[in-house]
# Entry
Amino acid sequence: MALATSPPEAPAPPDRKTYSSDAAGLGRVRASVFAAPALLLIAVFLVFPALWVLYLSITNYRLSGVEARDPQVVGLDNFFNALVSGKFWNSTWLTVEFVLGSAVIGQVVLGFTIAWLMRDRTGPLKRLVEGLVILAWILPSAVVSFLWVALLDRDGGTLNLLLGIPGFAWLLDYPMLSIIVFNTWRGTAFSMMLYGAALGNVPPSHLESARLAGASGWQQLRDVVFPHIRGHILTNLLLISLWTFNDFTPFMLTAGGPDGKTEILAVYVYKEALIGGNLGVGAAISAIILLINLVVAVFYLRLLRRKS
Amino acid sequence: MSPRRVLGRIGFYTLIAVVLAFFSVPLLWLATAPFTSDPTYEVSLPDFTLANFRAILEHPYALGSLYNSLILAVGTALLVVLFAALAAYALSRVRIPGRDGLLYALLLLSSIITGTAAMVPIYQLAVELNLIDTHLGVILILTGGLLPAAIFMLKDFMDTTPKSYEESARVFGASPLQIVRHVVVPLVRPGLATIAVWAIANVWGNFLMPYLLFSSDPENQPAAVIIYTLYTEGGQANLQLLSTFGLLYSVPVVLMYLFVSKKYGFRFHGGIKR
Amino acid sequence: MSAIELRGLTKVYPGGVRALDALDLVIPDGEFFALLGPSGCGKTTLLRTIAGLETATSGSVVLGERDVTNIQPGARDLAMVFQDYALFPHMDVTDNIAYPLRIKKVAKAARGDKAREVGERLGLAQLMDRRPGQLSGGQQQRVALARVMATQARAFLFDEPLSNLDARLRLEARTFLKRLQRELGVTTVFVTHDQAEALAMADRMAVMEAGHIRQVGTPAEVFQRPINTFVASFIGSTPMNLLDAVVRGDSLEVSGCKVAVPESAAGLLTDGEKIVYGVRPEYMSYSAGPAEGALGGKVSIVENLGASHLVTLEVGTASVQAVVPEGREPVPGDDGYALPRADRALAYRDGDLVAAGRGGTEAGA
# Structure
C-alpha cells in the first residue's frame, strides 16, 4: 500500500508476513482452490460449448461424410443461408408467436389473475388452486407432454368428450394454439408465485387509503398495485420470455409437426443439426439464439442492478 | 349483501371454477388411468386394479430407467452442492481479484447458454470425450449448466450469514478448515439442502440432454427418455404402461415438493426452475 | 494476563480510507478499558486490529512482552465477545462454551466439566442443554462471556457488549460486567458508542474521532476536563454549554454577561481574545435573582430529568442550560440566573482546552 500519506516513521518492512484478513482466514490461494473445480466444470461444459458454437457456425461441419473429417471455414455463409431461407424465418415467426402467446400473454395474465384473486385468501381453496397450478409446473415434462397428448386425442381425448366434438384433431388442425395453451398451463406457476409475493409487498396502508378515497377495484389496481409491482412485472416478463424462447418441451407434443407448423427455433436447431446432420447451419442458428439470449439477459441484469 | 357484491361473488367463483378446471382436467388422466384395467385416452372411473403396476415390473427398461434417473439426479446434485458451496464460500468471504466481474459473468452465462443454444457442441464434446451413452457425461454436462445459478444463489445465502461466527471461531484459534467444518457447513445447511432439491428437480425432469446423449442404448436411458420413446414409437401407444409409468415417475417430484414446502415453506428463488 | 500496547498503529483500507492513524496507547495489565466514539470513528477497527481480525497497515500491537502484529488471531491468546455474541446456533450452551477448548484439543469430558463450571458461575446451570435460539438476550450474553472465560486468554475484547440488550437489562448487565471484570482481573478492552456506558464501567477510556484518539483518561478526567470541544460535546448525558466569549481584562464577556475566567485558564488568556467558554449544566448554580458573575436571561424550556430539571435560559443570542435540583425549578417565562463554578468552567482556544497542565493524558503522550 504505497500511499503518499503513509506515516514516514513506520513503513511496512518488505519481509512483513501478513496473513489473510477475511472472516475465516482462508486467504486467496485457498479460496482459489475452493473455486477452481466449479469454474473448471463451467468452463469445459458451459463456456467452451458456447464458444464452439461460434466457431462451428462459420464452418461447413457435418455429422457425417467428408465435411465431418475435414470441415472447411465457410465464413458467414451459414448465416446468409439461414437468413435467406424461408424455413428459418418461418421458425422465427413461430417462436415469436409461441413466446408472445404462451409467456407474455398466457402466463402473465393468468398468473397475475390467480395471484390477484387469491391475494387475501387463506385456507383450502387457495391451497387447492395453488397446488394444482404448481403441480402442472413441477411434473416432469415428458409426463405432462403425454398427458396433453391424451387430453387432445382425436377420438378418446377428454377435451373432445367435454366439448362434445369427437374426432376433432387439435394437434393436427390447431397445433400452434395447442402448444401455446399447453405452455401456458405448464408455466403459469412461476408468474403466479412471483406476483403473489409482489402483491404481498404492496403496503396495506396504501390500498386502504385508496379504498378510503373511494377507489374502485380497477382504480386500486391501476393507481396503487401496478406502480408498486412494475419492477416485478418486468423481471417476470424477461425471465419467462427467456425460458419460453429456449423451451424444447413442445417437441415432445408435436415434434415440430405437422409439416413444420410448430417448428420453433429450439426444435429447428435440433432437426437441422442432429437429424439433418448440418452442424454448421445448426450452429449458426444456435449462435443467433445465443445472441438473442444475451440481449434479454443483459437487459434483465441491468434492471436488477438498477434496483439494488 | 348488495346486488353488486353478490354479482362480484358469483364472478369470483366462476373464475376460480374455470381456473380449477383448466389446471385439473389434464391431470385427471394421470390419476385414473393407472388404476384402470384397460385404460383408453378417456378419463373414466377406475376399477382400482393394480395389474398395471405388475406390467411395469415386467417391462425391460421401466424400473431401470427410474434408477438411471435417480443416478443422474443424485450424482448431479452432489457435484453441484459440493462445488457450488466451495466456490460460493470462497467468493462470499474472500475478495479474489475480479470477483464481481466473475459473478456477473456467471449469472449471464447461466441465463444465455441453454441446452437449446448449445446442443450441437455439447453433443460433439460428448462424442470427443467418449462421454456419449455414459451417466458421467450427462452428470458433468448438467452440473456445468446448473453450477452458475447454484453458486449465485448460495453466495447470496452465505452473504446474509453473519461473519462474526467465523471470526469468533477464528479468534479462539480454529483453522480455516476447522471453521468450515464446525461452523460454516452447519450454518448454511438449509441453503445446501435447497440447492440439492433444486438440482434434483431439474435433472429428474430434464429431457433434452439425456435424449441427445443416450442416443442408442435404452439400458442407460433415464425415465424422461423412456417415456417419450414409449409414446412415440411402435404404433399404438401402450396406455397401460404409459400411465402407470408416468405416475411412478411423477410421484418422487411431488413428494419432494411437499417435503420442501412443509419444511422450508417453499422459499422462492427466482431461478428455481430453468 | 497482559498489558496491551499499541505503537504507531495505522490501518488504511484499500481505497485509501484511514481508519486508524498512527495510534499510540498503553493499557496496563488488569485494566477495564473503554474505546468510546461516534460510529465510524475507528473504535471497532481498533478492537478488531488488536484481535487480529484486521491486519495493521503499519505500527505494532504488543501483548505483554510479545509483538503479535503479524500473528494469526487464533495464536494471540485473546478472547472476544462479538456484538451479536456469535453463539453457534447449531450447538447447545455446553458445546458453545467448550468450543475454544475443543480447538485446543482438550478431551471431551474435561471440556464439558470446565464448561459446566464456568456456566454455573454465571448462573447458566439450568440452561446448559439449550440452543442459543432458546435463550433471552441477557442469557445469550452470559453464554458469550462464559465462552471467553473458558479460554484462559491474556485479555478480553468486547465489541459493544451491551448494545443488543434492552434498556433495563442494560443497566443490570453494566453492573454485572464491571463486577465480573473486577473479580477476574483480566485486561479487558471494550468498544462502545454510549458515553454513559464508558463512564460507568471503565477504569480508563480513550475517546476517538476520525481514526485518532482525542483523549485518554479516567472517566472523571474526561468528564471534568475534556481536552477539546469534540470530547466536551460528546461526553455527558446533557451536553456541555459551549459559548462564544471575549476576554475582557480579568473576566469574560459571554452574550452580554460578565463571568469569571475559568481557574484552569488563569493567566493563559490575552485581553480581547475570542475563545469558547465551556461549562457543564451540572456545574451551574441556578437562582431566580441576579448574582455576580452569573448568566442571566429568560427561561424558555424546562425538562424534567427525574430528581432534577434541565432549564434552558435565553441569554442574549445564546441558549444556556443548567441543571436545577428538584423543588427549585422555574416555569417558562421566569427570569433566571445561572452561576458557573469557576473551578469547573473551561476555556477553549481553536477547539483545544486552554490549561497549564492540560489535565488527563493526551493521546501520544
Observations:
- Chain C touches chain A at residues 8, 10, 12, 14, 16, 18, 21-22, 53-55, 57-59, 70, 72-74 (CB under 8 Å).
